[in-house]
Amino acid sequence: MPAIEEEIQAAEDEGVTIVYLAAPHRIVGDKDGKVKGIEIVKTRLGEYDKSGRQRPIPTDEVQRFECDSVILAVGETFDQDFCRASGLALKEEGTIVVDRFTYETSRANFYAGGDVITGASNVSNAMGCGKQAARNIDEKLTGELRWEHLFPEFEYSRQAPGEPSLSRRHTASSLPAEARARNEEEVVAALSAQEALEECQRCLRCDLRAPVTAQ
After folding, report:
1. What tens digit of pLDDT does each residue of 40-86 get?
2. Is the model's pLDDT at 205 over the cut of 70?
3. Please, what are the domains in the chain?
4. Separation between Cα atoms, residue 35 and residue 70, nearest integer Å
């Protein structure tokens, strides 16, 4: 499962040991049905798939790790048989067919969005699908284009700042690893108002060119 560099670093900071090129093989339990270990099969990288990543190929090497609990986090799917029985058309790869403008499925008045239509993606894309579908559902139910009145667009000047901010890039602060591993508080804090303003003044001057001297 791919992860961005920040996620990997955060996990390692919290004491997580990452085993690369491995796939779950079986969960080992005792006679009472309690978990006592997990076995993984080592993999090697094969040919590239349609997503642009190399497909993992299982090897004959199996490793075992002692543990008392296992959290399943190897991806999600949905009940394709239920969708077919409900009259929803599916693509060959198993995602739901929708109108790409309205997100309505092959069954009238049924809408879908997110991973069920795109395959594994991210929360931002799923939220975008939901907002667009909601806009079309509202229009279909009311017969009106109310979206612009309910959610007016922001109005802002496109004038770039006269002088760029001399500040360096700001990064949001986060809780220390030992603290965030033991509570449910927000891990990453927002930028302050001043930091956000400086980021805008810095990023909106992408027309600037600075010479770079190689060391």
Report:
1. 999 999 999 887 888 999 999 999 999 999 998 766 778 899 999 99
2. no
3. 5-66 (3.50.50.60), 80-150 (3.50.50.60), 157-209 (no CATH)
4. 8
